[in-house]
């Protein structure tokens, strides 16, 4: 267990996913974690589930931190940074999780002497299966990056990427759980039409997505090869694949991700 103070400013969906992962993995003691939020309701919930420190004073959370996650919506970043910047410790690792906020923009507000990481997590962190792109600024040492990766591996895989790829990370992992949930919901709707109950349908659809994802990660085989292994000659699957291709599944996903990427760039 590390003797390190970790703070979160903004305690919504993403922060609580990360806090649960950190506490569950025993990375630090609950007393070493502090979350601040504008309203008390979310703080009461996280205190009840994780027993961490809470406050409505963002400056108190900033002053407490060796590692500080800025976990408010992007539109509140500037206001929150201006509020807390004088309370941040000189060697604090400051972690942005917002789309579109560049390292240059962040250091122009926080100070060019600050250690800053631009990251993009995703909500599967809630079940310890997140994916996170990480991009450190030039003030961060290799040890700092390893420390951050060690903390985040309690809820995510992590990969260091160049900043030019951070908007792509938003499209391919930050936002993509939403596309996958749509896909699962659509499969479940069809299964219900075929006679399954809702809960049965969600289990069959979700476990199939989970298993398929594991096959890609664990076999190292090309997704096309894995698809071909399912499609028996003159069988059922190739009929479904024919309809998905005809309805433009690939193109819809491609265009959706380009829209997501453009939005991230403009934020
Ligand atoms: N939800 C997601 O799937 C992902 C979100 N993100 C990023 O994470 C950040 C947070 O997103 P969510 O957790 O989804 O949002 P959220 O709305 O669930 O949480 C944000 C929290 O910040 C609080 N807040 C707002 N203004 C504040 C202030 N001035 N001081 C203190 N607290 C304040 C709100 O009360 C709320 O509890 C955003 O920048 C988002 O882009 C990144 C990756 C995935
Ligand atoms: O939709 C959003 O803007 C955030 C960033 C990535 C996922 N959710």
UniProtKB/TrEMBL annotation:
The reaction(s) annotated as catalysed by this protein in its Swiss-Prot or TrEMBL entry are:
L-proline + NAD(+) = (S)-1-pyrroline-5-carboxylate + NADH + 2 H(+); L-proline + NADP(+) = (S)-1-pyrroline-5-carboxylate + NADPH + 2 H(+)
Alphabetical GO biological process terms: L-proline biosynthetic process
**One GO MF term, please?**
pyrroline-5-carboxylate reductase activity
The family assignment reads: Belongs to the pyrroline-5-carboxylate reductase family.
Identify which top EC class this enzyme belongs to.
Answer: oxidoreductase
A GO CC term assigned to this protein in UniProt: cytoplasm
Report domain Pyrroline-5-carboxylate reductase catalytic N-terminal positions. Answer: 6-99
* Sorted UniProt keywords: Amino-acid biosynthesis, Cytoplasm, NADP, Oxidoreductase, Proline biosynthesis
| A Pfam short name | F420_oxidored
What residues bind NADP(+), as annotated? 9-14
InterPro entries referenced in this protein's UniProt entry, alphabetically: 6-PGluconate_DH-like_C_sf, NAD(P)-bd_dom_sf, P5C_Rdtase_cat_N, P5CR-like_CS, P5CR_dimer, Pyrroline-COOH_reductase
Q: In which pathway does it act?
A: Amino-acid biosynthesis; L-proline biosynthesis; L-proline from L-glutamate 5-semialdehyde: step 1/1
What functional role does this protein have? Catalyzes the reduction of 1-pyrroline-5-carboxylate (PCA) to L-proline.
Q: Where is the Pyrroline-5-carboxylate reductase dimerisation domain?
A: 163-267
Which HAMAP family does the annotation name? P5C_reductase (MF_01925)
- Say yes or no: keyword Transmembrane present: no
Q: What is its EC number?
A: 1.5.1.2
User: Where is the protein localized?
Assistant: Cytoplasm
Ligand binding (NADPH):
58
Give the primary localization class.
cytoplasm
| Protein name per its UniProtKB record | Pyrroline-5-carboxylate reductase
């Amino acid at each position: 267990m590390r003797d390190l103070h970790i703070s979160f400013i903004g305690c919504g969906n993403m922060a609580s996913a990360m806090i649960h992962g950190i506490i569950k993995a025993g990375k630090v003691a609950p007393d070493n974690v502090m979350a601040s939020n504008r309203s008390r309701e979310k703080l009461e919930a996280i205190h009840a589930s994780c027993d961490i420190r809470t406050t409505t004073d963002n400056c108190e959370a900033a002053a407490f931190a060796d590692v500080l996650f800025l976990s408010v919506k992007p539109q509140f970043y500037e206001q929150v940074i201006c509020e807390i910047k004088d309370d941040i410790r000189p060697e604090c690792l400051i972690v942005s999780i917002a789309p579109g906020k560049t390292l240059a923009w962040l250091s122009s507000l926080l100070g060019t002497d600050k250690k800053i990481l631009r990251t993009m997590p995703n909500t599967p962190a809630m079940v310890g299966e997140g994916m996170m792109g990480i991009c450190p600024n030039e003030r961060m040492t290799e040890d700092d990056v390893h420390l951050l990766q060690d903390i985040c591996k309690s809820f995510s895989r992590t990969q260091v990427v160049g900043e030019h790829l951070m908007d792509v990370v938003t499209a391919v992992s930050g936002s993509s759980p939403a596309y996958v949930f749509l896909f699962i919901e659509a499969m479940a709707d069809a299964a219900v039409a075929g006679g399954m109950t809702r809960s049965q349908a969600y289990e069959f659809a979700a476990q199939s997505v989970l298993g398929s994802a594991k096959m890609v990660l664990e076999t190292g085989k090309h997704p096309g090869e894995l698809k071909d292994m399912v499609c028996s000659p003159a069988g059922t699957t190739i009929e479904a694949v024919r309809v998905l291709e005809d309805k433009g599944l690939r193109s819809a996903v491609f265009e959706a991700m380009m829209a997501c990427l453009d939005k991230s760039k403009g934020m």
